[in-house]
Amino acid sequence: MEHDHADPDSAGQLHHVELYAADFDAAVDFWEWFLGELGYELKNDWADGRSWKNDPTYIVLVSADTDNHPFDRTTPGLNHLAFHAASRERVDALTEAVRDREDATVLYEDRHPFAGGYYALYCEGPEGVKLEVVAPE
User: pTM score, two decimals?
Assistant: First the structure.
């Protein structure tokens, strides 16, 4: 597996996020699609994990020990991940694509796309991780 060192020009930006999935194959299907739509490319692929990179950040997905507690974004810990979108049209296209998927759900449909007070997609992935894709003004 390739290892990255910090880039001083990216100081303060997110380096990477590592997520664990109980149903690894189903999670890979979703994350591969979702991150690909946001411009991420495959970085590493191994038996129990995969990662995607969009400089300077990468996202890692690893098969979880299913004896552990399931993820719950409403308890202490990670609540959601938010990504930049290039345009409102990109947010709209992702929203429609999420609606067409069986492994993800658009959240706050009654307030979409201004659920947070700005133009964004809020959705939940296959293992309950809330995702946000924010459009520019």
Answer: 0.90
